[in-house]
Design a protein that fits this description.
- Strand 10 and strand 11 form a beta hairpin.
- This protein is of the alpha/beta class and about 375 residues long.
- The longest helix is centred in the middle third of the chain and has 22 residues, at about 160-185.
- It is globular, with a radius of gyration of 22 Å.
- Helix content is about 45%, strand content about 15%.
- It folds into two domains: about 5-130, P-loop containing nucleotide triphosphate hydrolases (Rossmann fold), CATH 3.40.50; about 135-385, Winged helix-like DNA-binding domain superfamily/Winged helix DNA-binding domain (Arc Repressor Mutant, subunit A, Orthogonal Bundle), CATH 1.10.10.
- The strands form three sheets. It has a six-stranded mixed β-sheet. Strands 2-3-4-1-5 form a five-stranded parallel β-sheet, with helices on both faces. Strands 6-8-7 form a three-stranded antiparallel β-sheet.
- The chain has 18 helices and 14 strands.
């Protein structure tokens, strides 16, 4: 088992807040983390996908009153949306009784559903934390290519062989399409949604072209938007927004779309081995998405991610606006030659970036012209974590 960065983040949040909502796709390690925390203190754990555990909470106050002073862990809490009103009263009652923090740890795999359910009821009483798949800094730099190929879901990454890893990811996709998504309510044919997901993988890192996707699927643009919203909500797809501040240039306004886990990209496209991946046209987009997710996860809480592109060709793969207002610009290239185009420097000037970084496949941290530094992904991670 790898030591997860999220462990300490969640522990710290529980020390200062009454309730913590831990978000992340299924099988990312949320339950493992929660059980690890629960073992260290008086606690109870309920899995709300199990009918027997849901029955316990038919009269939630009767049960939860008896658990005062314990950490209550509720897994897949979106299954009981009506529970949040009771949690508000429970939190307030416990505060009056001398238990102001560390009361509830709520796990969920549908972010917008949970945010909507809890926003009004638990305002001022909850902190939201997103748990990403395994990160490079958690598994070690020597495992970079394996993490890129297999993705960060623990069971996929730790499989004995590439074939076993691929089989796990195929089963994961099938379970989401046939069970998990229908359980949330949307009535979408599994074959249609899989085609849509695969189309996104083929264009990994490309601009959203809803009309082309709609034509390929034989559905309306509105339906494409609904499919995309669903996968974004499940934290399986990232809709990276363009830089929107007025810089006096004609900016690209469509978002870029990434399947967030590189292993799922490769499973959707049938790329089982590193040789398969390196010979496929998606290799550049896959590497960009892998680095992008890693950098965003390493950035301080409250960082806003964007990309930047003008109609004249100035472009930045990733722009991070840090909580203090600093702007960092990133170019991501799978090359050992640390070189960027003139369009990169123009873009850095346009947004007045405070720092510019080229993440490349070399092993050295090298200063280049105009304040640009070229560095391996691991060094960029350390730099962001040090903020």
């Amino acid at each position: 088992m790898y030591a997860r960065k999220s462990n300490q983040i969640v522990l710290s949040a529980l020390e200062s807040q009454a309730a913590v909502v831990l978000l992340g796709p299924r099988q990312v390690g949320k339950t493992t983390l929660a059980l690890w925390i629960a073992e260290q203190q008086p606690s109870v754990y309920l899995d709300l996908e199990r009918n027997s555990d849901r029955q316990i909470l038919i009269e939630p106050d009767l049960y939860l009153d008896e658990q005062a002073g314990k950490l209550v862990v509720l897994d897949e809490v979106q299954q009981l949306p009506g529970l949040f009103k009771s949690l508000r009263g429970q939190i307030d009652m416990r505060r009056r009784n001398g238990f102001p923090t560390g009361q509830f740890l709520l796990l969920g795999s549908a972010s917008n559903v949970l945010l909507h359910q809890s926003a009004e009821s638990l305002a001022g009483r909850v902190r939201y934390i997103e748990m990403p798949p395994l990160l490079l800094e958690e598994v070690g730099g020597a495992r970079l290519e394996g993490l890129w190929l297999r993705g960060g879901f623990p069971d996929s990454f730790q499989a004995d062989t590439d074939r076993a890893s691929m089989n796990w990811r195929k089963d994961f996709l099938r379970t989401y399409l046939e069970r998990d998504i229908p359980a949330l309510g949307p009535r979408i044919p599994a074959t249609t949604l899989r085609r849509f997901w695969t189309m996104l993988a083929h264009t990994q890192g490309g601009l959203l072209n809803a009309a082309a996707l709609a034509e390929g699927l034989g559905v309306s643009g509105q339906t494409v938007g609904r499919y995309l919203d669903l996968l974004v909500d499940l934290m399986l797809v990232r809709r990276l927004q363009p830089w929107h501040e007025n810089v006096g240039k004609r900016l690209v306004k469509s978002p870029k779309i990434f399947v967030r886990d590189s292993g799922l990209v490769h499973a959707l496209l049938g790329l089982e081995t590193m040789e398969d991946l390196l010979g496929h046209p998606v290799v550049g987009g896959s590497w960009e998405g892998f680095c992008l997710e890693t950098l965003i996860a390493a950035a301080p809480t409250g960082t806003e991610p964007f990309f930047y592109r003008t109609s004249a060709g100035a472009e930045l793969d990733l722009v991070l606006r840090l909580p203090g207002g600093e702007i960092w610009a990133f170019e991501i290239k799978r090359t050992t030659t640390p070189k960027v185009t003139r369009g990169f420097h123009l873009a850095v000037e346009d947004i007045k970036a405070d720092r510019s970084v080229l993440v490349y496949a070399g092993e050295r941290d090298i200063p280049l012209t105009q304040g640009l530094r070229a560095m391996p992904l691991s060094v960029a991670i350390d730099m962001l974590r040090g903020l």
